[in-house]
Structure formats: C-alpha cells, structure tokens
Amino acid sequence: MSTLTDRIPWTPQLLRVMAGLMLSLFVAAMDATVVGTALPTIARELGSFELYPWIVSGYLITATTTVPIWGRLADLRGRRRVLLAGIFLFIVASALCATSPGMAWLIAFRTLQGIGAGCIQPVVFTIVGDIFPFAQRARLQGFFSSMWAVAAIIGPALGALFVSTIGWRWIFTINVPIGLVAAALVWGYRERRPEQPTARSLDVRGAILLTAGVALLLFGLGTGSQTATPNWPLVAAALVVLAGFGRVEWRSANPTVPLDLLRHRIIGPAIVVAALGGTLMFGVTTYVPLWVQVVQGGSPYDAGVAVGAMSIGWPLMSALSGWVMVRVGYQRLVVAGALVLLAGSLMLALGPAVRGVAWTGAATLVIGAGMGLFTAPLLIVIQSSVDWGRRGVATALNQFSRTIGGAIGVSLMGVLLQRFVESARDPLNRREQLQAGLHADFVVLVILAVLVLATAIAILVFSRRAGSLSPPVASSA
C-alpha cells in the first residue's frame, strides 16, 4: 500500500520505459491529427472523393470501440504484452496505409490502425498508474496528458510539411521507425503483477455487443457521412444493442466493462465529468473553426490558431495540476477547473462576433486551461480507487466516456445547427441563421460547463461530509 510520501528512484531502465511510453503515446496522438491537412491531396490522388470522410471516421470508430476491450485485456493478460501487441498492430497498419493503392484500401488500413491506437493511450496511462506512487504519479500524469495537446499542435503542421515536400504517404511511414523505437524501449518493462486470482478470459459476448452498439451509434449519429446527418433508426438500434450489453454485463462474472464502477462514489462522478468535458472539448474543436471562418471572416489559418489555443492552455495547466493536487486535493482542483471552463465557455457564448479571432482564441485558451486542471487529477483518483486487476479497465472507461460523450454531443449540436440553417427561407439570410445556430451551440457549451461545475461541487461537498478531502491511495503494485 503506497502513501502520499512514497517515491521510487529513477533508474536508467525506468527512464527508458518512460521514454518508450511517452513516444508511443505521442505517435498515436499525432496520427489522429496529422491526417487532416493531407485529406484533400489524398482524395485527389487516390480518387473516390466521396469516400474521403471514412479516412478519419474508420479510424475514429475502431479507436473508440476497442478502448474498453484493450483495457480489460491489460488486466487479464498483463500491461506489457497488450501494449506491445497494440504498438505492433499500429506499426503494421501504418506501413500498409503508406502503400495503399486506392481509397478503399487506405480506409481499410486506417480502420485497422485505429484498433492499434485504441490500445495505446489507456494501457500507457495504466502502466504509469502501476509504477508510481500517488505523489509522483500526480506530477507525471499531467505531462503524459499534455502529449495529446502537443500532438494537436505539431500534427497538422507536420502533415502540411510532408504533403508539400516528400508526399502524403510519409504521414504514415514515419510511424514505423518511431513505433519500433517505442516498442524497443518498452520491451524491457517488467511489471509487478500481484499474486491474486483473476479471470483469465475476456467476456466475448459482452465485447461483441459493446463494439456493435458503439459502432451503430457512431454510424447513426452521422460519422462517416459527408453531411453528418443522423440516422435515427440506427441510433434506436444502437440503444437496443447497448441495453443488451448492459444486461449481459450485469449478469457476467467476468464483464468487459464492470458497470459497478459507475456506482462507485469516486469513479462514477469522475466519469460524468469526463463525458461532459469531452463533449465540450469536441464541440469547441468542431464548431469554433466554422464560427471563425464564416461568421468572423477569418482564414483557415485563423481558425487553426483559434482552436490551437486550447492546446496551449491544456498542457500548461495539466502539468501544473499534479503539483497543486498533492497540496489542495483533487476535489478543489476539479471545482477550480470547472470554474475556468465555465468562464471560457461564457466568453464564446457572450462575446459578440465583432470581437474577432483574438477573442475566440482567448476563449479556447481558457477552456483548455480548465480542461487541463481537472483531466489528469480525475484520471489519477480513478486509478487510485481500484486495485491492479481493474486499473486497466477503469483507465479505459475514463477515456472511452470522454470520446463517446464528445461524439454524441457534437452530433446533437450539429442537428441543432442544421435546424437553424434550414429555417432560413431566403438564401441571403442563411449566413445570419448559421451565426444564430453556432451561437446556440455555444450556449449548449455553457450548459455543459455548468453541469461540470455542479458535479464538481457535488464531489467537493460529498467529500467534506465524508470527513476527508484526501485522495484515495490504492496499491501501486
């Protein structure tokens, strides 16, 4: 059992493992952003332009649906073995993407690549949770979380560089040497697995139902279609399948996702915050560029800068949050992050369009700072609330809730926006209706931030009534 003052020494072997984990996390994160700038070029060269949304959507679907399964496998088979399997699958799929002879092949290989990517983030964060005691982990998880924000800045620029020089195929080829180096560094990791009886097989029926239900939900919400138009019958079918999944999981002795975690007094509220925060984050990245270009008259570069500001605030506050958390407790930090998140959302919703791109960028910077304040602390307390045998699936559930919450929320905000646009009887009035629709979406972001704040306050009040603001500290073994 670790304590708040425990530390483990930094050895050359530990430094190599940490470098491998950070490198694998970075390459997976970068691959999610580097493709965007190359999509027009890829579509022109490979043809079948109508299929190009699936280059992103195929990756997104598999990277989302497989996260809980990889997390459970890490608990059953061990972290090192599962992470190396995910890295090698990612490397092979990247090489295949680089040699794709046509659009359909590229989509198929990107879908395979998403399966590997779905493994990397939850298992990397699980290993960090295994290795380090609470205080060290609190300081390190923020730096690991910032890898995604750094990749969001570097990825698009690197993609544009490759497209304009040596060609778009290097977007995928570069993953091969980086992935091999990461795997070589991680290879020497020897996990300290506790001697306790654990289930030795994956609940296949639950895994199939979860994958099918989430895939149908993403399809139904418009993922992969050029218009992103929801298909409500598919959404209804997805809900039926997911209800079946819930029924199976409650009765299973070896569930893919232990649903009792959602009833945990710490994990349940943390998952709610993750889902709401993910919805807000994806809403910003989806609709702020449209606001900047159409309403404020900015260029695509201006839109990128405005959204990229969120990726500056996030890593800065994420790195700071671990140090602060040890001193004030995660509950107060979550409340502070929620207040900052609400302030940034209000800046978007209440700031008139005439304030320009600088105001919008400042708003996303504040939103990123708010997300950075509570994202890493909540992950740390989730990991500290469970033992080794469920740390992988708990970590994966945190990531999964943020992603699936974002996918659902962005689609519903898209439906709201489309209602405003379709209400414009005069085509000349469509721009005004688009502005009104985007403003309505920003009001939704404010409501989400208020819900995050309400949940954060509930966490703080409950902790005070329980008589402790100290974080739970589970064994690091």
Summarize the structure.
This protein is mainly alpha-helical and 477 residues long.
Average of the residue pLDDT scores: 81
CATH fold annotation of the largest domain: Growth Hormone, Chain: A
Envelope shape: globular
Strand % is under 5%
Domain count: the total is 3
Largest sheet: none
Instruction: Return Rg in Å.
Output: 22 Å
The SSE string, one letter per element, is HHHHHHHHHHHHHHHHHH
Number of extended strands: 0
Q: What's the CATH H-level superfamily name of the largest domain?
A: MFS general substrate transporter like domains
| Distance, first to last CA | 8 Å
Structural class given helices, strands, pairing? mainly alpha
Low-pLDDT regions: none
Number of helices: 18
* Helix share bin: over 70%
Describe this entry's structure for a reader.
By secondary structure, this protein is an all-alpha fold. It folds into three domains: 1-189, Growth Hormone, Chain: A, CATH 1.20.1250.20; 203-255, no CATH class; 260-477, MFS general substrate transporter like domains (Growth Hormone, Chain: A, Up-down Bundle). It has 18 helices and no strands. The chain has helices at residues 12-34, 39-46, 53-65, 67-77, 79-98, 103-131, 134-164, 170-173, 175-186, 204-220, 232-251, 267-295, 300-308, 310-328, 330-350, 356-384, 388-422, 430-466. The radius of gyration is 22 Å and the shape is globular.
Structural topology:
Blueprint: H1 12-34, H2 39-46, H3 53-65, H4 67-77, H5 79-98, H6 103-131, H7 134-164, H8 170-173, H9 175-186, H10 204-220, H11 232-251, H12 267-295, H13 300-308, H14 310-328, H15 330-350, H16 356-384, H17 388-422, H18 430-466
Helix pairs in contact: 1-6, 1-7, 1-9, 3-6, 3-10, 4-5, 4-6, 4-17, 5-6, 5-9, 6-7, 6-17, 7-14, 7-16, 10-11, 12-13, 12-16, 12-17, 12-18, 13-16, 14-15, 14-16, 15-16, 15-18, 16-17, 17-18
